[in-house]
């Protein structure tokens, strides 16, 4: 090649190299000497497109981890093979905190973090896959509050995750939008799975067992995102939730009685269908208003637009627990019916009922038991305290919700 042409070709190659982004790299780590420092450094220095690959073994970590780089994957060798142990963590924060977008966390375990296990905040397209978060000493109020905890996030996928021992919720999604929670196992937590103040969530094919309560759909006051809505809870096994409540005093889930299956509180357009419920001693399904006083003009304390249909009910309601259990059984007796509604609406609506889209609808197989505790009428009309057990009074349906579709899930 002529010298002038060679120089031109070399110049073009340099320009192309400068314009091209760096190739994605695998950053490989093992649990050997200085593993904690090396892992912290790897997460800080990672570039978009990189994968932090954790070899099998136990990583004894003394400080929490954080990731603030977009488009990074953190991958272990399996949730029982790659273990990030925070048993000797110095601070009280999360095990791992993610504040970036398009992050995948998969195939590793987080054990014994002083605070939450794995948290994302303000993330878009965050994926938690094939993880295990566990407090190995079992249920204890000193355990971290949440196992897997995306908050203020969008396009959240949680699948194949196991959480044990959380003192609030094993899998908790708060103030987020477009959520899929599927094929997970939550056991020996206060709440197995909780969706709180969030928009558009599909919760399906999960196992919630041996928690205080199985699956909770909540809206709470005094949070930045209000008006949780459009939630589907379907094809889950919610069975034998029988762990005594070990939430710290003052925590809102401390009100959840042992033996709660699925609870819907102060949320809107919630569809509960195709689930299998058995062995829940207080109630299989409870639909209720927020019970505490609050100061938040934007908050709606009653559930609206709840559709419960085509579930399977086994034995349950034989061991109602705590104040909630007593409130129910004072009206319903024992065993508690399969579906319990406290009957609370806003007072102006009690006399006129509510709009069709805000009512409770129940369409269950023959033999399903139901009770409306009529708590609002006991307050206003104390001479009319007999519970309403006629499930046909709530016949009808709500329009079917569209499935949640996530960019990182192929739109599936």
Q: What general outline do the C-alpha atoms trace?
A: elongated
Distance between the termini: 53 Å
- Helical element count? 5
The largest beta-sheet arranges its strands as 1-2-5-8-11-14-17-20-23-26-29-32
What is CATH's topology name of the largest domain? Answer: Pectate Lyase C-like
Architecture (CATH level 2) name of the largest domain: 3 Solenoid
In CATH, what is the class of the largest domain?
A: Mainly Beta
Quote the average pLDDT.
90
- Computed over alpha carbons, the radius of gyration is 24 Å
Q: What do these coordinates show?
A:
It is a single chain. The chain folds into two domains: 23-97, no CATH class; 116-409, Pectate Lyase C-like (3 Solenoid), CATH 2.160.20. The longest helix is centred in the N-terminal third of the chain and has 17 residues, at 3-19. The chain has 412 residues and is mainly β. Strands 1-2-5-8-11-14-17-20-23-26-29-32 form a twelve-stranded parallel β-sheet, covered by helices on one side. Strands 4-7-10-13-16-19-22-25-28-31-33 form an eleven-stranded parallel β-sheet. The protein has helices spanning 3-19, 35-45, 322-332, 347-350, 375-380; strands at 26-29, 51-54, 57-60, 65-67, 73-75, 82-85, 96-98, 103-106, 109-111, 118-121, 124-129, 132-134, 146-151, 154-159, 162-164, 169-174, 177-182, 185-187, 191-196, 199-204, 207-209, 213-218, 229-234, 237-239, 260-265, 268-273, 276-278, 283-288, 304-309, 312-313, 339-341, 360-363, 370-372. It contains five helices and 33 strands.
């Amino acid at each position: 090649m002529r010298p002038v042409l060679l120089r031109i070709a070399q110049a073009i190659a340099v320009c192309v190299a400068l314009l091209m982004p760096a190739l994605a790299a695998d950053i490989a780590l093992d649990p050997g000497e200085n593993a904690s420092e090396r892992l912290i450094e790897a997460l800080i220095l990672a570039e978009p497109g990189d994968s932090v690959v954790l070899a099998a073994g136990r990583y004894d970590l003394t400080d929490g981890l954080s990731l603030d780089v977009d488009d990074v994957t953190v991958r272990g060798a399996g949730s029982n093979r790659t273990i990030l142990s925070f048993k000797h963590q110095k601070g009280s924060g999360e095990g791992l905190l993610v504040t970036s977008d398009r992050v995948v966390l998969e195939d590793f375990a987080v054990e014994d973090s002083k605070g939450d296990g794995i948290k994302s905040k303000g993330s878009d397209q965050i994926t938690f896959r094939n993880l295990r978060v566990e407090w190995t000493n079992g249920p204890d109020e000193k355990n971290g509050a949440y196992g897997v905890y995306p908050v203020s996030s969008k396009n959240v996928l949680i699948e194949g995750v196991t959480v044990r021992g959380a003192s609030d919720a094993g899998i908790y999604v708060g103030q987020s939008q477009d959520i899929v929670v599927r094929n997970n196992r939550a056991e020996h937590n206060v709440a197995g799975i909780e969706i709180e103040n969030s928009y558009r969530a599909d919760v399906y094919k999960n196992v919630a067992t041996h928690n205080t309560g199985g699956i909770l759909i909540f809206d709470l006051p005094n949070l930045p995102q209000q008006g949780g809505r459009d939630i589907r809870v379907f094809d889950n096994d919610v069975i034998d939730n029988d762990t005594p409540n070990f939430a710290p005093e003052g925590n809102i889930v401390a009100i959840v009685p042992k033996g709660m299956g699925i609870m819907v509180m102060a949320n809107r357009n919630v569809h509960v269908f195709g689930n299998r419920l058995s062995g829940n001693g207080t109630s299989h399904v409870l639909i209720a208003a927020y019970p505490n006083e609050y100061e938040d003009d934007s908050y709606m304390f009653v559930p609206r637009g709840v559709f419960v249909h085509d579930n399977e009910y086994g034995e349950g309601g034989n061991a109602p627990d705590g104040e909630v259990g007593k409130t129910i059984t004072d009206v319903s007796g024992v065993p508690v019916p399969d579906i319990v509604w406290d009957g609370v609406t806003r007072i102006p609506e009690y006399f006129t009922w509510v709009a069709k889209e805000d009512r409770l609808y129940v369409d269950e197989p023959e033999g399903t038991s139901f009770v409306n505790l009529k708590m609002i009428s006991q307050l206003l009309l104390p001479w009319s305290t007999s519970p309403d057990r006629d499930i046909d009074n709530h016949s009808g349906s709500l329009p079917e919700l569209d499935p949640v579709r996530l960019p990182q899930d192929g739109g599936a």
